[in-house]
Amino acid sequence: xxxxxxxxxxxxxxxxxxxxxxxIGEFAIVREGAExxxxxxxHPHAIIGDGVALGEGVxxxxxxxxxxxxxxxxPVTRRWDGDRRTVRIGSGCSVGVNAVVYVDVxxxxxxxxxxxxxxxERSRVGAGCLVGRYVTLAYEVTIGDGTRIMGExxxxxxxxxxxxxxxxxxxxxxxDQTFGRADDLDxxxxxxxxxxxxxxxxxxxxxxxxxxxxxALVAAGAVVTRDVEPGARVMGVPARPASD
Length: 244
Prior knowledge:
Layout: E1 12-13, E2 23-24, E3 29-30, E4 35-36, E5 41-42, E6 47-48, E7 52-54, E8 59-60, E9 65-68, E10 87-89, E11 94-95, E12 100-102, E13 105-107, E14 112-113, E15 118-119, E16 124-125, E17 130-131, E18 136-137, E19 142-143, E20 148-149, E21 154-155, E22 160-161, E23 166-167, E24 172-173, H1 185-188, E25 193-194, E26 199-200, E27 205-206, E28 211-212, E29 217-218, E30 223-224, E31 233-235, E32 240-241
Parallel strand pairs: 1-3, 2-5, 3-6, 4-7, 5-8, 6-9, 7-10, 8-11, 9-12, 10-13, 11-14, 12-15, 13-16, 14-17, 15-18, 16-19, 17-20, 18-21, 19-22, 20-23, 22-25, 23-26, 24-27, 25-28, 26-29, 27-30, 29-31
Antiparallel strand pairs: 31-32
């Protein structure tokens, strides 16, 4: 049997849902049940899991893993029930080197996922977004269209981020004020909400359940312990309204 066109030596392609003009590099794996759209490029050693759908023109860089299931080892407090294994990555996206995208994730068109980024289960990323190098999105994160998150930022579980938001490098977020000691931990966990057009400077920290209002600005290095009003500017530790 002749090799499939565009598939390099050593690649494993189990799926029969492969589009036209597809390139699959050496030792890449495309599992049965995956769907690969026209013009997709899968670089060497990338893994496309069962249930992953790649839109037209998607690029998956070397070593990326799409469709990873969560672990169930002892320290894990949240258990994956396995109800959805799908991953949907919109047309024109690029997934960086060694990035990891878990199951039940949807990424909109023309979004860039940087090298080493991690996106956990049940997260939703809009179109035209940037998720920078080594950014981590924990479980159930929602991000609106056109939002940019710079490198080495951590977005905690159950955080909601609106459209056209800018989040600087090294920002940290938290979602549990009980330090894991709540009787109903699942109910107690709630990340920040960052509304449309807000800006968060490099190295800022947002504590659980705070709301950064529409168009607000959080200065670099600030620690946000309470809600920020729409259009406000805050700075300092703890963050307070900035004086002109």
